[in-house]
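Subject: Sanity check before I submit

Could someone independently write out the structure tokens for this chain? I want to compare against mine line by line before I put it in a report. The sequence has 582 residues.
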Amino acid sequence: MPTLDIRGIPVAFPFTPYASQLVYMEKVILALETKQNALLESPTGTGKTLCLLCATLAWRIHRLKQLKAASKRTKVQYESIDGGGADDDDDKALRDKLPKIIYASRTHSQLKQVVKELKQTPYKPKVAILGSREHLCVHPEISSMRGTQQNHTCRQAVRAHKCTYKTGYDRQAKTKSAALPILDIEELVTTMKDREVCPFYLSRDMLVSADIVFMPYNYLVEPFVRNSLGVTLENAVLIFDEAHNVESVATDAASYSLSSLDVQGCIKEVEECHNLIVSGRIQPGEDTYLNSQSALTLKSLLLEIHTGLNTFPLNDRGGCTKPGAFIFEFFNQFNITFDTAPMVVTITEQVIEAMSDYAQSNPRNSKLDQLLTFLRTIYRDKENHQAMTKQYRVHIQEETVRQPGRMRNAYSSRPVTSTQRMFHYWCFHPGVAMHEIMDNKVHNIILTSGTLSPLETTVKELGISFPIQLENAHVIDASQVWVGVVGVGVTGKKLNASYESRNSPDYAAELGNTLVNITRLVPNGLLVFFPSYSILDQCTAQWQQVPRGSASGAVPIWERLAVLKPGIPGALGSRAASLLYF
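---
Independent answer below. Compare away.
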């Protein structure tokens, strides 16, 4: 396995790299060394993921060696002055100074491929892969739940020591997580289920000591999700792979909606909590703000919001759009401001917690959770809220919604419908989310994809600077590519796959004989695409037969192809595409 010298850093690579891969890794290391953001475009198939992993992990190892050398020099100087023996900094203290690598892609499926690439490298870093309970829970009952119901049921089972997997984690995970091999999320779930250890809690334990952390985009760009997972961005290297999706993910992460039906659900939950407090079935602790009066006050506030939303004047099309700053004007009429919002949020949190503890046998998804997210988003940045709201629009819209599972009567198939008001707080600039990330004092951000051009427009959209940029060439040069149209076959007949001629035996025979000739010229593998499944099936069926009128001993086209390209001639069993692979 070759070791490359890139900007003075030894980088182990699984094979001899192409020139474009060297250029790419040089840009990655330059960005890491100078702590500058990088926007790196490299065509699909050029090995971006492998280059990213090898260059970043090599730089991190090199940086650790630099820290050790500096620590050793400091120790010698200290001892020469003091005359005593200062304690050595252990590896853990030095590793804590190293930037953690956070590698984000759009989905867990994409991250699975990244982990597969990592296993092909010589590097064996400590890895953590983050997921929600929906992805990681292995409890036979809780794993089938979703959302708030799943989260609260899990917490209740943990507090009551009724989850054997959490108990297994408490008993052995902290001593065994360091010995785990590199695993993708599916392997982590399977392995831990066999060991009766909770993958969800283990992944958070692994996060603390991990050299590289894998997670989907939304975990990284949504502050509340990130904070709930315990992800710290300070001094972290953030890598966004397949970054052509980042703009839409960033704007979605900074946008929120709340419906009048959501508010109505909140009112019911708070009313139920108030009644349970009055009846003594819920007894809030002395260290909380929750009591019968605060619950009643919250209910009254929600009723005002519900009325205000339902009576807000709309245009003839049933909607109304306002500047982003209007959101503070709207909630100010209910006395919700930057000064009062924290108390509203706190009491709402305590209602959710109290109801969760009470309803252990029948947990449910809470509408109050949606209200919390909405309020936290609006009132998260008092100092910069005026500038931030310029990137937002408020839109209130009346909509008709179906009532799931309900029909008008036993004789009607028409569903029951109702109207609701939607309060949208839409972000129109991905820079809002990107600036929030930068404010956490990250080491740097690397965005990479096969399609980022024009880079100038991408930079403007994201709203942060990217001093290091690359529009890389493909590893395949022009001499390796020929694009053309083969209009006729070996005997001069037209190769026309139109509806009129595609069923003709002559067409299939001409196409098959032409392919036979092509296989004689093309080295290695051959991939043939067809316009449709039906043409693929018709051709392959005919090629397996000896053509009519052929001389005695004639060999079917299918067999001739198999002789020239031994291996697996035939249609792909999965029928994932209309193609043949030889």
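---
OP: Matches mine. For the report I'm noting this point. Residues 48-82 form the longest helix (35 residues).
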